[in-house]
Amino acid sequence: MDVRALVFDVFGTVVDWRGGVAREAARLLGPDVDAAAFADAWRARYVPSMQRVRSGERPWVVLDALHRESLPAALAEVGVAGVPDDVADELVLAWHRLDPWPDVVPGLTRLRRSHLLAPLSNGGVRLSVDLARRGGLPWDAVLGAEVAGHYKPDPEVYDSAPRLLDLPPPAVCMVAAHDDDLAAARARGLRTAYVHRPGEFGGRVVPPATDPGADLSVGSLEELATALGC
Q: What family is this protein classified in (predicted)?
């Protein structure tokens, strides 16, 4: 692929959202709560909460606000009737404290030698910056939902990347562990690379090993770097 920029889905592709949220839940909610089940319950509300914004049912808000709104229902699902506001605020910040998969930093470091790199995430700008600082993610820019004022898979998010990077869409490659994200990017003219993340959902859901529609299917960002000659 002759591409000059790579833009990345973040939750699940770059960072381990389930492990990080469960870790913070165990710290904040105590040993009597099933922290992994709580992480799954909260994540299950992720797409429906964004859909309310995408459909126009509610005005635009950043993902932190949506996470805060869906938190009580996720807690109730694991038997927690409620938490003080300061604990709720700390739980929302769990999404800012996620760790990258082991291959991510070395892979991004290699890719950055010859490509512009940026997240194209549904997370807000501050969340993306916090993840980068925590995990040492070498982004050249922060792009995504808050920058575009839309949530993926709205086309405006994918259109924003080549526009802001001053590149034609085929010179930008969307990298993600989710085939629906990649399909939406391809519909806007971006190239695509699928990353297999079998541990994203803790084994509850086994993703396909490849995406036949993608330009590349790889098992890690280091493998992606090799495929792109980095």
A: Belongs to the HAD-like hydrolase superfamily. S-2-haloalkanoic acid dehalogenase family.
Buried b (16+ CB within 10 A) or exposed e, 193-209: bbbbbeebbeeeeebee
Q: pLDDT tens across 13-67, in order?
A: 999 999 999 999 999 999 999 999 999 999 999 999 999 999 999 999 999 999 9
> d(Cα 175, Cα 155) in Å, to the nearest integer?
16
Could you tell me the domains of the chain?
Answer: 5-16+98-227 (3.40.50.1000), 17-96 (1.10.150.240)
| DSSP bridge pairs for 195 | 218
How would you classify residue 53: left for phi > 0, otherwise alpha for psi between -120 and 50, otherwise beta?
alpha
Q: Tokens 């869906």 identify what position?
A: 70
DSSP codes of every residue in 156-182: HHHHHHHHHHT--GGGEEEEES-HHHH
Report helix, strand or coil for 154. Answer: coil
Q: Which amino acid is at 155?
A: P
How far apart are the C-alpha atoms of 167 and 177, rounded to whole Å? 23
Q: How far is residue 108's CA from residue 139's CA, in Å, rounded to a whole number?
A: 8
Among the listed residues 153, 209, 159, 208, the one whose alpha carbon sits nearest the alpha carbon of residue 181: 153
Amino acid type, 212: P
What's the pLDDT tens digit per position in 65-93? 999 999 999 999 999 998 999 999 999 99
Residue type for position 36: A
Nearest to 40 by CA among 181, 203, 196, 198: 203
Tell me which amino acid residue 211 is.
D
